[in-house]
From TrEMBL:
Keywords carried by this UniProt record: DNA-binding, Isomerase, Topoisomerase
Signal peptide annotation: none
Name of the molecule in the record: Topo IIA-type catalytic domain-containing protein
Keyword DNA-binding: yes
Gene Ontology annotations of biological process type: DNA topological change; resolution of meiotic recombination intermediates; sister chromatid segregation
PANTHER family named among the record's database cross-references: DNA TOPOISOMERASE 2 TOP-2-RELATED, DNA TOPOISOMERASE/GYRASE
Catalysis: reaction(s): ATP-dependent breakage, passage and rejoining of double-stranded DNA
Domain of life: Eukaryota
Organism whose genome encodes this protein: Steinernema carpocapsae
Length: 564
């Protein structure tokens, strides 16, 4: 069922009449149904206990509820925390009390997206975190949980998601909701999922303490209070930044922090499907475009963005969560993943460049790890350090197919530890232009600009690539000299000349097929019937397995002189 056609060893051409007859006989539906059944059977063997157990062993980091898997399991709530630090705070909050109804396993941030994927079952069944989660809850793929009898087989009556109150936390909530909705929609209708919200900002003045659960709510308070600057403002970037005292305060006021997800009808199903289905890409574009247009209109009118949680919020519908909270992550995902057309950079790259410019007086080379630390300090970078170091490495690479102009001096990997600003970078981004740039602020700190304005379009020099929500982009590299010549023609009002993608020191050929497509060819010499010599790989064709796959594309795995 999964073998690629090129590996069959022969081809079979069937008539249209045969396909029509096959569609009418129902054999296709029968085969798909059988495959799905076997897949669910395999998943249940890996993921489910198939028997309600009061005690589970061998699951790391699980603090099981005392009544889980007993006759009182329907009263138990499984708390899923984002990371170990949140789990620790959650556990110690309840340590001095009885723990009959709550459990605290940490969740991973890279949950699977199973919806509309043909081989999703294989992906999920191989995921250790999801397998453990299903065992903890007692979920079985073969059950629908549309009856009270099936609900009694679960070890927990509800799950509560305790994620960060930022956009990434919203993404985690959305992934959990999508997974449950895709596999057991009846649980969504039974209000099986809850969330635990915590402040993202606190403002304190003497004994007065104000908590804000969204940035727009905080901005609204600032606009309505002229003396806001007399308060001490603290930003909470994750659950781990809350103290044990604060965690106890949160759990002592469950009415305020515990929010129920309520099913309101088909609109909820449509909203979840819109946010995650692979078949809804175009609809997601419309969804996000309308949201961006509304945000722009509100800003022009001096209005703040809508926010979901206020002081009286006790429950939200799934459609409200998707359209008012998850959409913030979807928009942020595009801002992070798709480079700006103005400077060709993503926010992480721009933060690195901003930090290097601030350290420009230091002419010495700097360790990659030290530069990453400086970026976190100077530009309020709050994500993984390893990801940031790879961003630095990518800005410095100059091998064939990477950067035509590397903004940092070359390094191959973080272990080759030194780098510094390339002198030509300052020429591309003149310092006098910074006085007209719009710099951003975070935590009352001035950080990098919304975008830099290079003297030539660097988005064409080094290309751009990114996959966001509903949108993606891929811009090839072009010759800087040809770009400069076209810029001069543009200034003089002359007709521009068409450019073809170009990569420094690349010896292969790039041929245009149409307005959107090019063919990139390397260099290969056929030495004998069983030997070839590859002297230049096509751009981006660097992995050995991909080269082998292309080499085996010929009939019976042979490459003839005409194939290259």
């Amino acid at each position: 069922m999964t073998l690629q056609s090129k590996s069959f060893g022969s081809t079979c051409k069937l008539s249209e009449k045969f396909f029509n007859a096959a569609n009418k006989c129902g054999i296709v539906e029968s085969v798909i149904s059988w495959v799905n059944f076997k897949q669910l059977e395999q998943q249940d063997k890996k993921c489910s206990t198939n028997k309600k157990k009061s005690k589970l062993k061998g699951i790391p980091k699980l603090e099981d509820a005392n009544d889980a898997g007993t006759k009182n399991s329907h009263l138990c709530t499984l708390i899923l925390t984002e990371g170990d630090s949140a789990k620790t705070g959650c556990f110690w909050t309840w340590c001095g009390q009885t723990r009959p109804i709550r459990s605290f396993p940490p969740t991973r941030k890279d949950a699977e997206r199973p919806r509309s994927e043909h081989q999703a079952g294989q992906t999920i069944s191989d995921n250790a975190e999801i397998n453990a989660l299903l065992k903890i809850i007692g979920l079985q793929y073969k059950l629908k949980y549309d009856s009270n009898e099936e609900m009694k087989t679960l070890r927990y009556g509800k799950i509560m998601i305790m994620a960060d109150q930022d956009q990434d936390g919203s993404h985690i909530k959305g992934l959990v909701i999508n997974f449950i909705h895709n596999k057991w929609p009846s649980l969504i209708r039974r209000n099986f999922i809850e969330e635990f919200i915590t402040p993202i900002i606190k403002a304190t003045k003497g004994r007065e303490e104000l908590s804000f659960f969204s940035i727009p709510e905080y901005i609204e308070w600032r606009q309505n209070n002229q003396n806001w600057h007399t308060y001490r403002i603290k930003y909470y970037k994750g659950l781990g930044t809350s103290t044990s005292k604060e965690a106890k305060e949160y759990f002592s006021d469950m009415l305020r922090h515990r929010i129920k997800f309520q099913y309101s009808g088909p609109n909820d199903d449509e909203a979840v499907d819109l946010a995650f289905s692979k078949k809804k890409i175009e609809e997601r574009k419309v969804w996000l475009t309308r949201w961006m247009e509304t945000r722009k209109e509100r800003r022009e009118q001096g209005l703040i963005e809508d926010y979901l949680y206020d002081k009286d919020t006790r429950a939200v519908t799934f459609s409200d969560f998707i359209n008012e909270e998850l959409i913030l992550f979807s928009n942020t995902d595009n801002e992070r993943s798709i480079p700006s057309l103005v400077d060709g950079m993503k926010p992480g790259q721009r933060k690195v460049l901003f930090t290097c410019f601030k350290r420009a007086d230091d002419k010495k080379e700097v360790k990659v790890a030290q530069l990453a630390g400086a970026v976190g300090e100077m530009s309020a970078y709050h994500h993984g350090e390893q990801s940031l170091m790879m961003t630095i490495v990518n800005l410095a690479q100059d091998y064939v197919g990477s950067n035509n102009i590397n903004l940092l001096l070359p390094i191959a990997s973080p272990r080759y530890i030194f780098t510094q600003l390339n002198p030509v970078t300052r020429a591309l981004f003149p310092q006098p232009d910074e006085s007209v740039l719009r710099f951003l602020y975070e935590e009352n700190q001035r950080i990098e600009p919304e975008w830099y304005c290079p003297i030539i379009p660097t988005v064409l020099v080094n290309g751009a690539e990114g996959i966001g929500t509903a949108w993606s982009t891929k811009v090839p590299n072009f010759n800087p000299r040809e770009i400069v010549q076209n810029m001069r023609r543009l200034i003089l009002g002359e007709e521009l000349k068409q450019m073809v993608p170009w990569y420094k020191n690349f010896r292969g050929t790039i041929t245009q097929l149409d307005d959107q497509r090019y063919v990139c060819s390397g260099e290969v010499a056929v030495i004998s019937s069983d030997t070839i010599e590859i002297t230049e790989l096509p751009i981006k064709m660097w992995k050995l397995q991909r080269v082998r796959d292309r080499a085996n594309d010929g009939e019976h795995g042979q490459i003839s002189p005409d194939d290259h």
